[in-house]
Automatic annotation (TrEMBL):
Origin organism lineage: Bacteria, Pseudomonadati, Bacteroidota, Flavobacteriia, Flavobacteriales
Similarity-based family: Belongs to the OmpP1/FadL family.
Listed transmembrane segments: none
SUPFAM superfamilies (UniProt xref): Porins
Cited InterPro entries: OMPP1/FadL/TodX
Superkingdom of origin: Bacteria
Gene3D superfamilies assigned to the protein according to its UniProt record, in alphabetical order: Outer membrane protein transport protein (OMPP1/FadL/TodX)
Location(s), subcellular: Cell outer membrane
Bilayer topology annotation: Multi-pass membrane protein
Protein name: Outer membrane protein transport protein
Protein's organism: Winogradskyella aquimaris
Keywords of the record: Cell outer membrane, Membrane, Signal, Transmembrane, Transmembrane beta strand
């Protein structure tokens, strides 16, 4: 029975996260999301407190159960361009024939709406210095589905297509036989199950610790971690990159926090989530024609995060401000970049990692409590972009860069036991992330990434979400 329940929880959260984009979720649950994710020093609900600062759960003196489900929609767009003459130079199809025209195209993600669950519970008692909590949160995910381009310059035999429109043709999604990637699909999810403990050192200062158990799954089609089967001219059979079905990995880590409540409105908090270290994803690869491809392994950890928070409560308002630093540069799977080099000293065509940079995140939220039983909240989140433009090509399976996110939320307090929460989120990438198309066959000492001059690859996206939650407080029975 216990094993079946665990499988059910993993299935529930994996289904919800598979269709998401965004590597680090800005918040957890309706209340925390509506505050822009700020909760390190302003614990308005148990989910935000457990996610961002384990010490902050000390403010809850009851047994509380919290469940949230969000309906999430993202709209990534992948674009590329080729300069005039790149496909074939002037005269390639006979004397006087023109050079190939400049090519530009955009592919839109064709995913639909998905859902995001969050489940947490806290046990507190006003007469005890100890507070406990457990949670199961989807804290990370990315995924795209860019279909294969059908507007092609030629067929697989190299015969020109007279109906081809170069102004609406995305070369990145051309079939692999035409040097594109074909259909690009990725799915990554990370479910974190945690046990949280907080201890009140004094009536104003608490400390907290949270060991984390992590379950992740990753699917890549095509799989750029594997070496492609190059064309016959390069000693291969031309099968290209293989694909890999979803494969799991298990990871462990921890989070530590401290929380200060002055008792007169001012609150301070700090926390540090360690690197969540995972085992390797073991990909069972298969070429697009159904034949077996060499298996590969890849380790991708979750980065360490430092959070500093400021909170202030007065009359009918609660204000929260969080600053975070995400350490991608020291994280396995994100710190490496470029093409793998084989034993013979030549590039294999396999990608070593994303090559992401450390980023900062700023979250700010305001709650208004002047309406009886109906608190209102506004939140804003700003996130840096971890992608170096020189390495943008490597992140096409993980295009989720949201720089600005805006939230509006509210709650309805039915009675002392029940509360309903809701939030609406909108985010945008504030323009496109852009770089050059890279090809390992173009690598030279002066061009170590194989950059193709005059080309471009870019991606941008928007996100929207409606999330609803229910909060139940187990009140103690009192004698008449």
């Amino acid at each position: 029975m216990k094993t079946s329940f665990i499988k059910l929880i993993v299935l529930l959260f994996s289904l919800g996260l598979y269709a998401q984009t965004g590597h680090i979720m800005q918040g957890v649950g309706s209340v925390n999301m509506s505050m822009g994710g700020a909760a390190t020093a302003q614990p308005l609900d148990i989910s935000g407190a457990m996610h961002w600062n384990p010490a902050a759960i000390s403010v809850f003196d009851d047994k509380i159960l919290k469940l949230d489900v969000g309906f999430f929609f993202s709209s990534p767009e992948l674009s590329s361009s080729l300069p005039e003459g790149l496909l074939y130079p002037e005269g390639a199809f006979g004397p006087g024939s023109p050079a190939s025209p400049a090519v530009y195209g955009t592919t839109k993600d064709d995913r639909g709406v998905s859902y995001m669950p969050a489940l947490g519970m806290v046990w507190g008692n006003e007469n005890s210095k100890h507070t406990f909590g457990v949670s199961a949160f989807g804290i990370s995910g990315f995924g795209v589905t860019f279909p294969q381009e059908t507007n092609l310059p030629m067929d697989m035999n190299g015969n020109p297509n007279m109906d081809w429109n170069p102004n609406n043709s995305n070369a990145i999604n051309w079939p692999q036989g035409l040097n594109g990637f074909g259909r690009i699909e990725s799915d990554y999810m990370l479910l974190q199950v945690s046990a949280t403990y907080a201890y009140e050192l004094t009536d104003k200062i608490s400390i907290g610790i949270q060991p984390n158990f992590n379950y992740a799954a990753l699917e890549l089609n095509p799989n750029p971690i594997a070496s492609p089967d190059f064309p016959p001219s390069m000693g291969g059979t031309g099968k290209g990159y293989p694909k890999a079905d979803s494969t799991p990995a298990i990871g462990f880590g921890a989070q530590f926090g401290v929380f200060y409540d002055s008792g007169s409105g001012l609150k301070l908090g700090a926390s540090y989530k360690t690197n969540q270290t995972f085992g390797e994803f073991e990909f069972d690869n298969e070429y697009l024609d159904g034949t077996d491809a060499p298996d590969v392994k890849f380790q991708m950890d979750y980065p360490a995060i430092m959070s500093l928070g400021l909170g202030y409560s007065f009359t009918n308002f609660d204000f929260a401000l969080d600053f975070r630093r995400v350490f991608y540069e020291n994280t396995e799977g994100f710190e490496a970049s470029g093409w793998a080099i084989g034993d013979n000293g030549f590039p294999t065509g396999a990608v070593q990692g994303f090559g992401w940079k450390d980023i900062s995140i700023l979250s700010v939220g305001l709650q208004y409590k002047g309406i009886s039983k109906l608190p209102l909240r506004l939140g804003y989140t700003y996130s840096g972009n971890p992608i170096d433009e020189d390495l943008a090509f490597f992140s096409t399976p993980a295009t989720a860069i949201i720089k600005n996110a805006y939230q509006f939320g509210l709650s309805y307090e039915i009675n002392d036991n029940w509360r309903l929460d809701a939030v609406y989120h909108y985010g945008d990438s504030n323009g496109a992330t852009e770089g050059r198309i890279l090809d390992p066959r173009q690598i030279t000492p002066n061009n170590p990434l194989g950059e193709i001059p005059g080309t471009s690859v870019s991606y941008k996206m928007t996100t929207s979400m409606a999330m609803f939650g229910i909060n139940y407080t187990f009140k103690k029975k009192t004698k008449d």
